[in-house]
Amino acid sequence: MKYIIVGLGNFGSSLGMALTRQGHEVIAIDNSMQKVEAYKEVISHTICMDATDEHTVNGLPISNTDIVIVAIGEDQGENVMATALFKTLKAKRLISRSINPLHEKVLQAIGVDDIIHPEKEAAKRWAKRLSLRYFVDSFELSDHFSMVEISIPVALIGQTVDDLQLEQKFNIRLLSTLRYEYYEDSFGRTQTKPSIQGLATPGQVLKDKDILIIYGANKHINQFLRSVGIKVK
């Protein structure tokens, strides 16, 4: 897929690098040449430009871009102006970062397709991660359903997927297992990337250091976690 990311702050740059690593084409723009130069080796394309200037923004391949993300978080006015401009230029799908509740209402009035709350979403994930001993990460599909990653509890090591009887006992499904590999990026920082083991099969034996990817209703996932000794609220 093709993305345009507006703003190379902490959030925008991290998102751009992650999408590039996943094989997507990313055009990242910022009005700071220093930031553009800093990320030119780790993001597909970086361009120095003013995202609120219609003449220069109109030169971007907006009609051929799947998603435009306005990631500006430092300047609320610039965020709104850039978002409105990309809306006027008919971005196929427009996502913008919200800074506060009033700002979110303005973005809704502009008609964005989705709104990102990076700090709020990160806080919710970390709250789970810190409160559950084995919790690694989660993705909420709705208010009631999630996909969660948990480090394998000791009691499950050596068992097969079929042994767990997850669907029969808890009405949840083990989708896959993965392991995290560590590497250094071009800035010398330690990063992690998941190595997915493929779809879980009934005869698959669960091993030490496996991360379990589980899907289901939140209440059913919590029942399973309690059954293996993980305290949840």
Descriptive notes:
It is built from nine helices and eleven strands. Helix 4 links the parallel strand 4 and strand 5 (94-97). The longest helix is centred in the middle third of the chain and has 14 residues, at 118-131. Strands 3-2-1-4-5-6 form a six-stranded parallel beta sheet, with helices on both faces. The mean pLDDT is 85. Helix 4 runs parallel beside helix 5 (101-110). It has two domains: 2-116, NAD(P)-binding Rossmann-like Domain (Rossmann fold), CATH 3.40.50.720; 121-227, Regulator of K+ conductance, C-terminal domain (Alpha-Beta Plaits), CATH 3.30.70.1450. The chain has 233 residues and is α/β, with parallel strands linked by helices. It has helices at residues 10-21, 33-39, 54-57, 76-88, 101-110, 118-131, 161-164, 166-170, 218-227, and strands spanning 2-6, 25-30, 45-48, 67-70, 94-97, 114-116, 135-140, 145-151, 173-184, 190-199, 211-217.
How would you summarize the topology of this molecule?
Blueprint: E1 2-6, H1 10-21, E2 25-30, H2 33-39, E3 45-48, H3 54-57, E4 67-70, H4 76-88, E5 94-97, H5 101-110, E6 114-116, H6 118-131, E7 135-140, E8 145-151, H7 161-164, H8 166-170, E9 173-184, E10 190-199, E11 211-217, H9 218-227
Helix pairs in contact: 4-5
